[in-house]
Amino acid sequence: MKAFKLEKLLTLLTRSLLLTPALSIIVAHGESNVDNLSGAAVKEKSLPQAAEKSPSPDDNTIEFNTDVLDVADRNNIDLKRFAHSGYIMPGEYPLTLKVNGQEITDLSVRFTPSPADPDSSVPCLEPEMVKLFGLKPELTDRLTWWQSASEQCLDSKSLPGILAKGDLSHGALDVSIPQAWLEYSAPDWDPPSRWDNGVAGILFDYDINATRTWQHEGGSEADISGNGVAGANLGPWRFRADWQAQHTSHNGQHQTEFTWSRYYLYRALPQLNAKLMLGENDLDSNLFDGFHFSGASLKTDDNMLPPGLQGYAPEVTGVARTNAKVTITQQDRVISQTQVAPGPFRIQNLSSSVSGKLDVTVEEQDGSKQHFQVNTASIPYLTRPGMVRYSLTAGRPTDWQHHIQGDTFTTGEFSWGVTNGWSLIGGLVTMPRYNALAVGIGRDLLQLGAVSLDATQAQARPGKETKNGGSWRLSYSKRFEKIDGQVTFAGYRFSQKNFMSMNEFLTARNSHVDTLSSGHSRELYTVMVSKFFQDLELTMNGDYSHQTYWDRPDNDRWSLSLSKYMDIGTWKNISLSLTAYHSRYDRSNDDGGYLSLSIPWSNGGTLSYNGQAGRSGITHQVGWYNSINADDQYNLLAGVTENKRSELSGYYTHQNDLVRMNLSTSYRGGDYSAVGLSLQGGATATLHGAVLHRETVPGGTRVMLDTNDISHVPVKGQGADLHSNLFGKAVIPDMNSYWRNSIGVDVNALDDDTDVSHPLTQLTLTEGAIGYRKLDVIKGRKMMTLVKMADGSYPPFGTSIMHNGHETGVLDDSGRVWLTGIQPGVEMQLSEEGQPLCQLKLPRHLPADETQLLQLTCQPLTSTE
After folding, report:
1. How confident is the model at residue 381 (pLDDT cuts 50, 70, 90)?
2. Burial grade of 361 (CB within 10 A; 0-12, 13-18, 19 or more)
3. 2.60.40.2070, 3.40.30.10, 1.10.10.60, 3.40.220.10: which CATH number matches 780-860?
């Protein structure tokens, strides 16, 4: 027992958890540290009794002075195992794995006697742990293992240069690996070996919008619409079902629709840097127009690639004249719905997998609607030399109501990095009576940007007549660092009169006509630019789209925005922005402009003026914006229309742990009044618990954080802070897929009676995963406590006090401990080497003065324990 006590003491000193004058230690790395130590127990190094082993100058050893021990104890204590610097007693320890100083994840590490020297200990690097190191795949066969108990441990000699060392004082396992052995990684990006598929679970996400309008001349109408995703996760597989619903009421007439718009199953294939999808989907192609189908696809996923090789996601911009609902659809399937305040808006949370034309509808609260289309043509991408990006798809075309619309088709495309700067692009679509072939090249122009050119030749026979036609496209992108400018995308496409896309072929085939449907594309120009004028401190953003047709009038859309921050006298950070736009869609023109002036106020609010000019005339508005707190903001507007009618509107946003909410209202004298409400949220359930939470990307990646059953613990992820629910669980929904995420407890907002040993953790999740992490959170007061056994003796030195599997304190040799997690009536246990010794029951009435010594008696364990 005495030998054990001393081992426990030295381990505790190593962990820096407890200091005691009962033993003096001489720590000598060679001879460098002897002169820095003082005390009566320090002996000259030449004395034979000063240590069990005399170190050589090169030996990393520790010497112990045993003169302070009882004479009878000296022969019972074996200090040889402590003669090695950094010795850790064998056992399991919760540590944070660090590879070359980078935190990877939290895990349990078992320390075991070294096979080379039983008196020293080494961490057992088990196979599952080694997978997290990020070693190159070709090195796997070179690894050798040694057996420890029932586990295999890595033989570090199999890869020279690998070192692993436990650091209990910082709760870390530090692993050092030569960079040559590791896969590519970036500051926020991990190699596939570290990706986490999460845990099994189910989810349901929703986005609900409701509006009610009363016309002053009589009559009212209401609209409630919603969309979202239901799904389930099992291992690497993700099952998802998209839903959309709408209920309308107009003068007592009601109509309700609900549909599951698509069902699909997908998973990541890290070895191929690809995503496998089964079920209903939209063709995601850089060469061909998208269409809806049921089948299977295998596609290189840019999100899995390192940051410098990833593509871009489309965005939708526009101007709302009033509080409005913006609906983005593709082939009648709702992709996004959101409510926006009056003025310019920019929607940037669309998935990068969305491609082709998007239909945008802006429904104003006054009943008017704007319609326009957005082309999401991809930025021309290049592929690294020797690398191939590919997409393979097979299935049958369908509509959004799951009806088969054509025969079986197959399609494939690739981009091959031929040399440094040149890429070859190609693709093929084939099905009975329709074939299309595309070829192209991409070129990195270095200082001049990147450009791609491709041509598509299609042969279609929707009826008796065969149509042959071609389409050519030129795409360009460039970032101009020296002038703070950027051409995000510029493209031109020309299609011959007899060229038919797959969508046009399916429409003609299903309508049993040989001719093309109305709206056959001829030319398309697309440009998106931005520029910052540093001398003027002025930012410019613009986009232009011009579409011509063979059989109907042209469509045009352009917008230009200028914004500037400036100071006028004592007024600082005044914001001035001007937006002008033009849209011609389906023979209807919509021209207008928007002027905004914002002046920050001393109390944190903002006074604003907004002027709009459009089809409905010119309006002037004065507004007030302010934040109640980080989760609540409001905007009040009052103005007058061109015909002297008064306007009032309000917009309020609120988010909490359960939902993100927007509430709006508007009134126009003699015309109408309206209210609107939008709710975004979700529910996630796993074997660890269920949580209602906010939602960002429907069906997206999330993490369930377990705060050890303690409620209202502030946790943080990428967005605003959340709090654990009544059962000590929280879901952080705004996680990045394939990027390293840092999550944990916000210690700055933590209650005084709550502690957490390791507040932050990191993880990299695959797309759609439900991650899970449990944090060691303890709630309760902290007091100096004196513990005695039932017979009045003190417990053994170094005994741990445990509560629900968590260590709340370690006893010194006089039974004293700084005890945490103190709550009235709570039961704890004294534990030695993992074995319970006795039971502590805290009184139901605790001392009010935390400086008072709390005295407890440890009672024998009951028979049930």
Report:
1. low
2. middle
3. 2.60.40.2070
